[in-house]
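HUMAN:
Sorry, I am quite new to this. Are you able to go through these amino acid letters and fold codes? The numbers rather puzzle me.
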Amino acid sequence: MKKLTIGIISIVLLTLFSQGISLASVPNYKLITSFDGSINCIFTKEDTVFIGTDSGLYYSLDNLKTFKKVGDVLSSSSISAINYINGKYYVGTDGNGLFAGDSVTQLSSLRDLVDCPTISNISYEGNNIYVSSHCSGFFASFDGGKSFMNLNK
């Protein structure tokens, strides 16, 4: 993941410099250094940016000027996936499973619905929610997240 992040940053910087643009001329450019671990995923919803790292979940409400760390069980979790589906935030971790809630600061574990601690992706189509995991495969909810089925069993 670090190679991918470095690659993307390199491409952006190369593009800027090849066009004669310096970082000083990019409005509101600021180097983000407030994370304790590697960045695993990025998710945006309206004006909020969420950053999932090896050491927790961060969010910014002010156009990336400051970040706040979610201070519950996710504060020390490796965040692997983030999505917003039908009015709820879904956060996947590498070690603590899947979480969901109306607010990213008030998430509850869905470990009783998705019995895997290592979530790799969360996606959806309409009312159907799909969760992939490293340990027990592929889960799907066809009722908006009220229940999940393990489609590998």
